[in-house]
């Protein structure tokens, strides 16, 4: 059961990223920052949905590090955008 949950989560995240890329290309605005933020949102949603309520499976240990790094990078992007606004 846990293996199926892992692969389903990876497939859902891959489909989410493909949909994001499709709409970015359709809109003709491919922006790496927007893609990163939407990918992080998708990763957070998938991580919350596959995490157990009473126990933490072994495969959920490493996505926590990835999420922490993503949130730190998101904070850097937000700080950069705030500095751009203040400079203008």
Structure, explained:
This protein has helices at residues 2-26, 32-50, 61-87. By secondary structure, the chain is an all-alpha fold. α1 runs antiparallel to α2 and α2 (32-50) runs antiparallel to α3.
Q: What is the number of helices? A: 3
- Helix and strand content put the structural class at mainly alpha
Provide the residue-averaged pLDDT.
88
Runs in which pLDDT lies below 50 for 5 or more consecutive residues are none
Query: Taking Cα atoms only, what radius of gyration do you get, to the nearest Å?
Result: 16 Å
The coarse overall form would be: flat
Helix percentage: over 70%
Q: Which series of helices and strands comes N to C? A: HHH
What share of residues are in beta strands?
under 5%
Q: What is the makeup of the main sheet? A: none
For this entry, what is the oligomeric state of its chains?
A: single chain
> What is the tally of beta strands?
0
Terminal CA distance reads 53 Å
Spell out the key features of this protein:
88 residues; 3 helices; mainly alpha; flat; single chain
Give the topology.
Elements: H1 2-26, H2 32-50, H3 61-87
Summed up:
This protein has 88 residues and is an all-alpha fold. It has 3 helices and no strands.
